[in-house]
Each structure stands twice: as structure tokens, then as C-alpha cells.
Write a structure and sequence with these properties.
The complex is a heterodimer of chains A (about 425) and B (about 200). Helix content of chain A is about 10%, strand content about 30%. Chain A is an alpha+beta fold and about 425 residues long. A two-stranded antiparallel sheet of chain B has the order 2-3. The chains are: A alpha+beta (about 425), B mainly alpha (about 200).
Chain lengths: ~425, ~200
């Protein structure tokens, strides 16, 4: 690979450590592409035996292969896979599959790469035999088969989904583990979810005045259940039937799941089959232990549904190697907030001493992954890259030390501190605590 | 008495006017924010839903009749649970059923290894769970992990009793049933706070 020769009218430094203004970079790129169009082919008026140079690559000289009914990624890309966390206990029944977040571009995670946490495996549900029930504090207990649900008017939204335990190693490990972005941040993904607003189903059944919570249950082996406040279900929750334009994958809850935008993954009950309307929560297994937060004073905080504002630089990130010393790079990453839209992402290339505002790619959507970029001219010295997101309500990512102050030393859920990647003078990128 | 016949007719007319007005109002709303829907739900009878009503609430709602002793629970535990939850209930690899939450000791030499290998070992049913009914509920619906819903109600009472015994919350000779389970006071309850505002704990 040849050394980068940055083409730009002027690259204006915006913070120390080599961070540059992205706008000047983009503008000069445009100027260049229009000048390209001026160069022209040579015309000829003689018959000649000369033909296209036969040294062209073979795939340009033969017809291609047939296509397939369901497309798959290029075989040259088939190393881009989810990885199953090694640390899950003994059996495959409880497994956590991480998305290769550092290989993603844009804000949509392909369905096959969407992260997935399965507490009791992935059930094989026959949609013909699957039913959704609603009962409890309703005027009319009702049941719906999948076919009927597919006839309901639907809405779509692009949202992130994140497990409460995403980035847990950085929450609890005394020293930063040398892991990839996939291992540390791979329990967040982005998709377009389509389905039926839950309020329509609740209104069809008719809520009794005492209705305050719904115990939402899946039809998996462990009958995963969560108590969800009715106000959220009447707001933006949907019964999701489609993900990125196709019916849900089994590991995402086929034939249907609850989708509660911005709330911890575990509350988005997969394989949804039962809604029990109640006046109080049930204190299900995941409301009793695993999905609670242990606070600094030993208190157990329950029902912390929201995933707070968070960001991570995905390129460069853990275990990658910068190919060129003193090269030019575009730093790129993702930011999201379970409360609303991302307002701003700041990046530091000098370990947090100075910060520059990164460019946000459109669209910037509520409770969605948001892509940010900033150009960077690395000076070849070891340094630390950081990103810090702020959402539209002014919620800002805390430092790791501030986050740690709030929680017991072993509490690992809802970790959203500023992430630091250490860059060695050899260009090796390593997980680090700022 | 013609008025007796007129009255319902008039009512019917008024009603259809009302419906029309409502319908028109809705048409306007549809154009605005597409809030229309289809009512395709079918009536669900109590007998259809009852096999699925497995959620046990802290109030005791849905607890089945039954009973089981700590002693019975110990035997069942050794046969069905020990291989994943450890001999004493806190060695893992699966979640700790007994004792305190957190590090095994402040200077736990295996700290990093534990995080890396078995992060869920940092939590414990005995110290975090606020209600004994939830232990019964979860074992009954999900454990043993490889054969969920295979245990009888009596067996689930016995295993719940044994886990409570391991946590010094029940005496060794005790028998647990749908009434005595409601007398158990779990330490996790006192420590609880809620991030969601609309709830008292």
C-alpha cells in the first residue's frame, strides 16, 4: 500500500493530536471528481484486429455464475461473522452472539450479523401454531394468529438495540482487557423494525382503569418474561414482525417480538406469545438479579430500562493495526441514546486534553445508531483516541471513573462511559481506560 | 302506545348520526397520523389461557397447590442442578444460588478470570432476589436448563426450599408450600430501589 497523499484544499486542524475539519476534505474531493470527467477516450476510423487486452482479469472475460434465491455475502467476506462469547457458561443454551461492529458501515446491521442473546436457546416455532394472547386487566381477553397480525396496519422505525450487558468487561475488569470492538461493544446493532403499534392491540382488548404493567412473555423453553410499564407500550412500542424488510430471523424472535425503542435488549421479549395486563410488576428472574444494577451503596437498582447515551470509535479500534505510520485516517464510529437523538459527538486524539466536534452522517434519528466521522493525520506518536457523545437532552457520556463511582465494583450493566483506544507508536490499537 | 315504538327508532337514528360523526372525525384523523387499525382479535376464553398462566406474582397469585421439603430439595439438587450450579450452590459455572453477590472476597485472586469466564457468577439469588415466589416461578418455567418445565410442582417447592435453606432463610426440617412461601422475607427486598418512577418497592 502506498503512503497516503491527502488531497484537500486545506485541512484545518480542529484539535491537537492531528484532528482535522472534515468539511474542507469533502469539498476538495468534489472538485477533483468533476475534473475527472474532462479526460476523454481516443477515436479511431480504421478496421483493426486489435481487441480488448486479454490480460484483463478472468471474471471480465467469462459470463458470471447464476445468482441464488437467497443472497449471501461474498465468499471473500465470509470471515465477517458474529462471535459467540467464550465466557458464557458450559452449554450453548445460554449464548451471547456479538456483532462485528468494527466492520459495519452506516447505521444498519445486516440481519445475519445482528447481535443476539439467547437465554434458553433459539426455539423453532411453527407460525401456523403460534398465537398471541392478551388477558388480565382488559375488557376483552383476545387471541391473534400470525396471519391476522400480518393484516394489521404497521409502522416502521430505524432503532438501535443494545444488551444491558454490552461492554461489561470494561465495567468490571480492573485492567483493560485486550479485546476487539466486537468483543467489547458487539452487543449493539441497528435495524429497521416494522410491526404493529402495541397501543392498537391494547386498545382493542380495552384496558381496565387499574392496568399499569404488562407481563410480556416469550414462547421459548425458558418462557422469558419481563414486566413493562403500560405507558411505554402506549407510546412507541411495537409488535415487531419484520426486521430490515424481511420477517424476523429465529434468533431475533420469529415469528414476532416486542420492540421497545431505546430500552435494554432483554425487555424486547423475543418469540412473543403472551401479554398479561396487571397492576404491578411480576419480579421475573431478570428483574430479580441479572438485569439489575448494584449501586455504590449496595442498593439494588431495578427497572432501569433506558440505555443511556454512548459512543464508540469503530475504526480504528481494538486489535487493529494502523497500516501507515504518520498516515492519514478517517476516524469513524457509532453513537446512540435510548432517550432520543444524538446531538453531538466529540473526538479527542490526545487522550482527552483537546476535543473536536465530529461530522454526523444523516439521517440522525431518535433512538438509533448515528454514524460519526472525523479526519485525522496521525503524527506517529503513541496516543489515545476517545469519543464522547451528547444527546438532544444534554445527556453526556461520563468518564469511566465517574461511571464507576455510581456503581458497586462488580456491577456490569448499563456501562456507557467514554471509550479510549490506545494507539502505540507501532500503530497497534488497544482497549484502554482514559 | 306509538311513542314506545318511536322511541327506539329515534334512538337508532341518533345513534347512527353519532356513529357518522365519529367516523368522519376518524377519517380526518386517519389523514393526519394514520391511527387506523383493524380489529382482528378473537375472544380468548379463561380455559384457553389458564395452561399458560405460569407467572407467579409476589402476592402469591398463580401459585399451584403443593409442597416440598428442604431434604427432598437437597436430593433433587444433586441430581438435576449441581453439575451447573456447583456443589455448594455458588461455584458455578452457572449463576450463584447462594450467598452474597459480588467478588468472592475483596482480594479474590481469580478476579480477572472470573470476569472473563463466568461473569454471571457475580450475582446471587440469595442476596439479590426480592421475592421467594420468583425463585419458584423461574425454576418451574426454566430449570433445569436442559429440560425446562419437566419438574413437578412439589419438586419445585422442594428445590425452592433447598435454595432458601442454603441462604439461611429456611430451617433444615422445613417444608415449603403455597402458603409458607409467602412468609419468606428475602434480604434483596430491603436493598431494592427502582429506576422507574411509577413503582413502590
Amino acid at each position: 500500500m502506498k503512503p497516503t497523499n491527502v488531497r484537500a484544499k486545506s485541512l484545518v486542524p480542529v484539535a491537537r493530536g492531528g484532528l482535522l475539519d472534515r468539511r474542507s476534505f469533502i469539498l476538495s474531493g468534489l472538485a477533483f471528481s468533476s475534473s475527472l470527467a474532462v479526460s476523454n477516450a481516443v477515436a479511431s476510423d480504421k478496421i483493426s484486429t486489435s481487441k480488448i487486452d486479454q490480460s484483463l482479469p478472468p471474471w471480465m472475460k467469462t459470463p458470471g455464475n447464476g445468482d441464488t434465491e437467497y443472497g449471501l455475502p461474498s465468499k471473500y467476506e465470509n470471515h465477517i461473522k458474529r462471535d459467540v462469547a467464550e465466557h458464557t457458561p458450559e452449554t450453548s443454551i445460554f449464548s451471547i452472539w456479538h456483532t462485528p461492529i468494527e466492520n459495519q458501515r452506516g447505521i444498519i446491521t445486516p440481519n445475519g450479523l445482528h447481535f443476539s442473546v439467547n437465554h434458553n436457546g433459539v426455539p423453532d416455532i411453527d407460525p401456523q401454531k403460534h398465537k398471541l394472547m392478551i388477558h388480565g386487566l382488559v375488557d376483552k381477553p383476545l387471541t391473534f394468529d400470525v396471519e391476522s397480525l400480518l393484516r394489521y396496519p404497521m409502522v416502521s422505525a430505524i432503532n438501535f438495540l443494545e444488551c444491558a450487558g454490552n461492554t461489561a468487561p470494561n465495567a468490571v475488569s480492573l485492567t483493560p482487557l485486550d479485546q476487539t470492538a466486537q468483543e467489547l461493544f458487539g452487543q449493539v446493532s441497528g435495524a429497521e423494525w416494522s410491526g404493529i403499534p402495541l397501543k392498537h392491540i391494547l386498545q382493542e382488548a380495552g384496558l381496565k382503569p387499574t392496568a399499569k404493567w404488562v407481563i410480556v412473555e416469550g414462547a421459548d423453553g425458558g418462557s422469558h418474561a419481563r414486566s413493562i410499564p403500560i405507558s411505554k407500550l402506549l407510546d412507541d412500542a411495537i409488535i415487531a414482525l419484520y426486521q430490515n424488510g424481511e420477517r424476523l430471523r429465529p434468533s431475533q424472535g420469529y415469528p414476532m417480538r416486542l420492540f421497545v425503542p431505546g430500552w435494554e435488549g432483554n425487555a424486547n421479549v423475543k418469540w412473543l406469545h403472551r401479554l398479561e395486563v396487571t397492576d404491578k410488576p411480576a419480579f421475573t428472574k431478570d428483574e430479580s438479579g441479572l438485569y439489575s444494577d448494584i449501586l455504590d451503596d449496595g442498593k439494588i437498582q431495578r427497572f432501569s430500562f433506558h440505555m443511556d447515551v454512548k459512543s464508540v470509535i469503530t475504526r480504528p479500534s481494538g486489535k487493529q493495526v494502523l497500516p501507515e505510520k504518520k498516515g492519514f485516517y478517517e476516524i469513524s464510529g457509532l453513537a446512540w441514546s435510548g432517550y432520543g437523538k444524538i446531538k453531538q459527538v466529540e473526538v479527542s486524539a490526545d487522550g482527552g486534553k483537546t476535543w473536536a466536534i465530529a461530522h454526523l452522517d444523516q439521517p440522525v434519528l431518535s433512538k438509533s445508531l448515528t454514524r460519526f466521522y472525523i479526519p485525522w493525520q496521525w503524527n506517529g506518536n503513541s496516543t489515545m483516541l476517545l469519543s464522547r457523545a451528547t444527546d438532544e437532552f444534554g445527556r453526556v457520556q461520563p468518564t469511566r471513573a465517574h461511571w464507576r463511582d455510581k456503581y458497586a465494583s462488580y456491577s456490569f450493566n448499563h456501562y456507557n462511559a467514554i471509550q479510549a483506544w490506545h494507539i502505540s507508536s507501532d500503530g497497534v490499537v488497544e482497549n484502554s481506560y482514559a | 302506545m306509538p311513542s314506545r315504538f318511536l322511541y327506539p327508532r329515534c334512538l337508532k337514528f341518533m345513534l347512527s348520526c353519532l356513529l357518522l360523526v365519529t367516523a368522519l372525525g376518524q377519517v380526518a384523523a386517519y389523514a393526519d397520523d394514520a391511527t387506523y387499525t383493524t380489529d382482528l382479535g378473537v375472544a380468548l376464553s379463561p380455559s384457553e389461557v389458564s395452561p399458560y398462566e405460569i407467572t407467579i406474582f409476589p402476592s402469591g397469585k398463580n401459585l399451584p397447590e403443593g409442597k416440598g421439603s428442604v431434604k427432598q430439595g437437597e436430593g433433587l439438587y444433586q441430581n438435576h442442578c449441581m453439575m451447573c450450579h456447583g456443589e455448594e450452590g455458588d461455584e458455578g459455572p452457572a449463576a450463584r444460588l447462594k450467598g452474597s453477590d459480588g467478588w468472592f472476597s475483596f482480594s479474590d485472586p481469580l478476579r480477572v478470570l472470573r470476569i472473563d469466564k463466568y461473569p454471571i457468577l457475580l450475582i446471587s439469588v440469595g442476596s439479590l432476589w426480592p421475592y421467594a415466589t420468583s425463585i419458584f416461578d423461574y425454576i418451574r418455567r426454566a430449570m433445569p436448563h436442559y429440560a425446562p418445565k419437566s419438574l413437578s410442582n412439589d419438586e419445585v417447592y422442594a428445590l425452592t426450599a433447598y435454595i432458601l435453606y442454603l441462604n439461611d432463610l429456611l430451617a433444615k426440617e422445613s417444608v415449603l408450600n403455597e402458603e409458607t412461601i409467602l412468609d419468606i422475607s428475602m434480604p434483596g427486598k430491603q436493598r431494592s430501589v427502582s429506576a422507574w418512577p411509577e413503582i413502590e418497592l
